[in-house]
Write a structure and sequence with these properties.
With 425 residues, this protein is α/β, with parallel strands linked by helices. The protein folds into two domains: 3-85 and 227-394, 3-Layer(aba) Sandwich (Rossmann fold), CATH 3.40.50.300; 104-218. The protein is 46% helix and 16% strand. The protein is built from 19 helices and 13 strands. It has an eleven-stranded mixed sheet with strand order 2-1-13-10-9-3-8-7-4-6-5. Strands 11-12 form a two-stranded antiparallel ribbon. α2 (39-52) runs parallel beside α3 (65-71), α4 (104-122) packs antiparallel against α13 (249-268) and α14 (294-302) packs parallel to α15. It is globular. The structure holds adenosine-5'-diphosphate and magnesium ion. The site of magnesium ion has 3 residues, from α2.
């Protein structure tokens, strides 16, 4: 059992470390606060302690600064344990195929995640932009693309509806009677006009990713570079740099959502492992509001079964879908609140007695109120301050880590482009 420190409490001149251990951390941690109050820094400090404690971790960073900070501080022993996914490194793209599944159960999970991802990207409020018909076509098309020994990726989906040879080749491998019927009965009866209407619709959703070379070279590879089962099983360190400034907001969101889906698929399998044999796995998602689907909300409520400790942060509740907000307030063991606005203070002060709304809105930078999970129970609220960001000596193996990931894990761009050209031909 290991403990990590979140910050410190100073009360009547006495300083106490605010720490918690593995069992309590598996009940999850949520942090809220306005920009600049020190949230990302808290996660960085925690994640570095996890790394030093030989824990398996994944850190998803929407800005890239936390990843840069962590890279500079990776202890030399862990050099080869760091998997760095940096989509902006276009010369050695990692393959991230949402539609690569290891078994039937995972296949079903990933296909329903695929549908959820399209909702999240194009119709987050479920206003009908994506409806049951698109879902139906997408589900059948995804299952068809995945069929056969070569598998397939998202970017081949539009091709299914224009290339009869490709459709027939894939159909030969299908076993699922409902998918077979989709092609033999339903599609056979669908008019060309309706097909082309639907194709336009698909193209408008997939086109963005098909036409962007960086994205195509990542999500179009058939084989995943990262084996999430392996990473979790072997306590590896996965750093995901989704710097929006470098790769664009929609791309960052798409890749983040795929990573979250893949991680969840791997995590769900851990229910079968006996709890004693399962080491905790820690996930940090900074500015997480754009990267969670409804599936994640249900995972939060059950993930004690999986040995997953989730750390989430964002700026204000209104950024979150109602379902996610409720899942958090209902299931998270540890809540940390930095300075927040009146509306959020209204919600949180109810659970943070004796602190009042005004206490929350008047908090100074780097100061917070916390309800901490201690030995399976959430404590009363108390105050704390965060650790300074630069309290640990720098090893700076950034260059070496990047090299290992490019040469031993990524695939040279020319090879990837050749594969994708063939898949789309
Ligand atoms: N406890 C602290 N003491 C001093 N400086 C800090 C502390 N925590 C964070 N900082 C600094 O404050 C700035 C904002 O921190 P950051 O973690 O990025 O905030 P947020 O994620 O809430 O926007 C950064 O420059 C960071 O280095
Ligand atoms: Mg931040």
């Amino acid at each position: 059992m290991s403990y990590i420190t979140i910050g410190r409490n100073i009360f009547r001149g006495k300083t106490t470390q605010i720490s918690y251990g593995d069992q309590d951390r598996l009940r999850h941690t949520y942090m809220i606060g306005k920009t600049g109050v020190g949230k990302s820094t808290v996660f960085q400090n925690m994640c570095l302690q996890d790394i030093e404690n030989y824990k398996g971790v994944c850190f998803i960073d929407p800005h890239g600064e936390s990843i840069d900070w962590l890279l500079q501080r990776i202890p030399p022993d862990f050099l080869e344990d760091v998997y760095l996914f940096d989509p902006s490194d276009i010369e050695f793209p990692f393959g991230l195929n949402l539609l690569q599944a290891k078994d039937e159960q995972e296949k079903d999970f990933l296909v329903s995640e695929c549908i959820q991802i399209f909702y999240k990207l194009f119709d987050p409020d479920k206003t009908g932009i994506i409806g049951p018909q698109f879902e139906h076509w997408l589900r059948n098309a995804a299952l068809t693309v995945m069929a056969g020994p070569e598998g397939g990726s998202l970017i081949e989906i539009p091709k299914l509806f224009v290339d009869k040879q490709f459709e027939l080749k894939k159909r030969k491998y299908l076993k699922d009677p409902t998918v077979l019927e989709f092609w033999s009965k339903q599609m056979a009866k669908t008019s060309d006009f309706h097909k082309s209407e639907m194709l336009n619709y698909f193209s408008s959703k997939f086109g963005h990713f098909l036409n962007n070379a960086m994205m195509r070279n990542i999500i179009g590879q058939h084989k995943d570079t990262l084996d999430f089962d392996y990473l979790i099983e072997h306590n590896k360190i996965l750093l995901v740099n989704l710097s929006k400034g470098k790769i664009g907001e929609t791309n960052a969101q798409m890749l983040g959502l795929i990573i979250m889906s893949k991680l969840q698929a791997a995590i769900l399998k851990r229910a079968k492992i006996e709890p004693e044999k399962r080491s905790p796995y820690y996930l940090y998602v900074d500015e997480f509001q754009n990267l969670v689907t409804d599936t994640f909300a249900s995972l939060l409520s059950e993930s004690r079964k999986y040995g997953l400790g989730v750390h989430l942060t964002n700026q204000y509740f209104a950024q979150l879908p109602e379902k996610i907000k409720d899942a958090i307030l209902g299931n998270v063991g540890t809540i940390i609140a930095f300075e927040i606005g009146m509306e959020d203070a209204e919600i949180l002060s109810k659970e943070f007695e004796p602190f009042t709304k005004e206490d929350f809105t008047n908090l100074r930078k780097y100061n917070f109120y916390i309800r901490l999970m201690i030995d399976g129970k959430t404590s009363k609220a108390f105050s704390g301050e965060s650790l300074k960001p630069n309290n640990i000596s720098i090893s700076n193996l950034t260059e070496e880590i990047i090299k290992v990931n490019q040469l031993a894990r990524g695939t040279p761009r020319i090879l990837v482009e050749e594969q994708i050209k063939q898949a789309l031909a």
